[in-house]
Amino acid sequence: MQFFSPFSCIFHNLIVPLQPIISPMRIRLHNARILTMSPKDDNIFMGEIVVEDGRIIAIGTDSITGQYDKEIDCHANLLMPGFKNAHAHSGMSGLRSLADDLPLNEWLTKSIFPVEALMTADDIYWMSQLSVLEYLTSGITACFDMYMEQDAVAKAMDDMGFRCVQTSGANDFSKDIREMSRLYDNINQPDSLQSYILGFHAEYTTNIDNLKAIAAQIDEKKSPCYVHACETQQEVEGCLQRYGMTPVKFLDSLGMFKYGGGIYHGVHMSEEDFDVMKKRGLFVVTNPGSNTKLASGIAPIKKYMELGIPIAIGTDGPASNNCLDFFREMFLVTGLAKLRENDAAVIDAREVLKMATVNGAKAMHLKDCETLSVGQKADIIMIDLQQPNMQPINNIEKNIVYSGSKQNVKMTMIEGKILYWEGKFLNTDAQNIYQQVERVKTRLCKEVNG
Length: 450
Known about the structure:
- Helix content is 37%, strand content 20%.
- It is of the alpha/beta class.
- The radius of gyration is 22 Å and the shape is globular.
- The strands form three sheets. Strands 1, 2, 3, 4, 5, 15, 16, 17 and 18 form a nine-stranded mixed β-sheet that branches. A five-stranded parallel β-sheet has the order 10-11-12-13-14.
């Protein structure tokens, strides 16, 4: 493979010590193994990547001369696209381990909803930033977030330099149904790290009048729609009793999926549900860690793949998971599928990596963040292969999925800016975030206990 580059200039053999990269720069990442995740490049190869103004401008196997603000010797570690967390509730990080070992309905209604009713925009700002710190340590370069106070979430993500797509968690108890159209217009701005897609929490938390109001906004904006659906058997049975249809079938009958979108979880599915998913080109975002902890069930991943229904991966929220660790999610996707099907051969590691990167970007409508290719955004992670769990190097892709962990994330770069390097956050005060979240947690616990 040869380099593709729009520039050619004099090379200076200068290695600049790594410092925080806050503004867009021209950066050369060399002496790297590269996994592009592009269908055109099936194999990992030795080469280098050049980044300028937040985008990849050159990639290939040969050395290239040029002038750079920084040169980073990758020491034969792996560069690959960042993971895309396609379902998250970032503002729930302060509720981690506050309510555990409960079934979903009881966990929500008795433990989570009462605390959330007391949360302010400032609370959610700090909790969202705490989640971003954890995303960076896990090689996550974008999240698909559903939570309250979405202006505060957008500011938190922007202040951290983190890419975030938001969707509404609107329900009968929130003001978000009235806010959705405004948020859609305000957050979707050119050249922004922030974007917005319409959606709502779930059928079982949203009455028919509100569902119709949401469907009208979806039709007005011609937006895809994302929603929790078919997470538990109880949820499906409740919808059948109310409307005589499963959640996916019922929501489609209201026009929710007229412009595509997808569902979060998709564990308890009928043949009719699969038909709707195929017809509408919907994504399923599987959340194996949360579904396992809440005993919601195991998603039929093999069936989705056989039907050609695209699968992305999410962590769900840090209050239900409880960690935002994409390595654990990737292992569970394939491990639980093998267990469910009683077949150790199902769901190859390469397919899981595709779900975690390319499919996640597609589900989130991040068309510039799918692969490591010229013109794509420079959302790049470096996997440290010089760790015991990555040796020997027989098959790097399988190592990432089956033996990889957060300790292997050496670098997380978003839009050409290195935000995390060798265990350090380069452009934020993590200790201050920890202190602010502790303050919020203490107040909420005091208020909820009366």
